[in-house]
Amino acid sequence: MVAMSVHSDPTEPSDSPHRSGFACFVGRPNAGKSTLTNALVGQKIAITSNRPQTTRHTVRGIVHRPDAQLVLVDTPGLHKPRTLLGERLNDVVRTTWAEVDVIGFCLPADQKLGPGDRFIAKELAGIKRTPKVAVVTKTDLVDPKALAEQLIAVDQLGKELGFEWAEIIPVSAVGGQQVSLLADLLVPLLPEGPTLYPEGDLTDEPEQVMVAELIREAALEGVRDELPHSIAVVVEEMLPREDRPADKPLLDIHANLFIERPSQKGIVIGPKGKRLKDVGVKSRKQIEALLGTPVFLDLHVKVAKDWQRDPKQLRRLGF
Ligand SMILES: Nc1nc2c(ncn2[C@@H]2O[C@H](COP(=O)(O)OP(=O)(O)OP(=O)(O)O)[C@@H](O)[C@H]2O)c(=O)[nH]1
Prior knowledge:
- Residues 53-57 are annotated as: G2.
- This is GTPase Era.
- Residues 19-192 form the Era-type G domain.
- The protein is α/β, with parallel strands linked by helices.
- The chain contains 9 helices and 9 strands.
- The protein folds into 2 domains: 19-189, P-loop containing nucleotide triphosphate hydrolases (Rossmann fold, 3-Layer(aba) Sandwich); 207-316, GMP Synthetase, Chain A, domain 3 (2-Layer Sandwich), CATH 3.30.300.
- The longest helix is centred in the C-terminal third of the chain and has 18 residues, at 274-291.
- α6 runs antiparallel to α8 (274-291).
- It binds guanosine-5'-triphosphate.
- The site of guanosine-5'-triphosphate has 23 residues, from α1.
């Protein structure tokens, strides 16, 4: 079934039991998973970027409703592993899939189904018990005819692989179209249960990890194509500055930005340190918005040789 109409108002009281559970969005890199998570939660939680595979950590957004609590687990994209890091990421993805109550498979409306989508759909077909919702994303980028064709192709893909989608829903996270309908469709697929997280919590991701992701996101902007996979950020310390009056707090954040080769240092730091400075200013503003407090950000660039291939380094960097 393709869901197009807007359902009942979820803020109205209803007799149905309270539901709670976990959902994850899967899909190839750039399919729009993080943007959709943000749109559903209503605040910037997951890190979005127009570069593939920026979502390294499992970031949860929580949708609070009177009738349900929907916990969104945003996984990194499943991809052909070339390094130890790639293999670990894929393990994380599969483990997540087996644990959630519903899986949303994101397919961009503006791109023909490709081998990458098929690869993921085949993996999904192997997870029998979990309901699978096909989410056709970025509908604002196509005309109705192209959208209809994509919906049919997605339906067909499920049939080819021997399963039925629980729902097929077109959405535009950017245009805010059908986003709340998506929540309406996901909620009935959750088990009955009490609220899992306190009201107002949007994520249980440790603050340090989110801060690190914001710095990484800023560092990725405008750099050469080969660099993104070589950057990792670790927040070493977050401490309130001592001797500050209560109405003028300052949070000291010490973070290291790791690259793989000395030759990458220049790209990250830029002429006369300008790029690194910009990265610091930009991410500091975002961190301040996230944490609601003024921040002093101390950012250092370090070389961790071939960290993607070294298990000891990977552990140190939090993978
Ligand atoms: N026009 C349009 N663009 C969108 C929409 N949703 C996402 N995008 C864009 O598509 C790009 C990728 O979006 P993300 O949300 O980062 O994709 P992702 O699937 O989380 O990507 P990875 O983290 O690489 O797996 C970004 O440039 C978004 O701005 C949408 O509804 N409409």
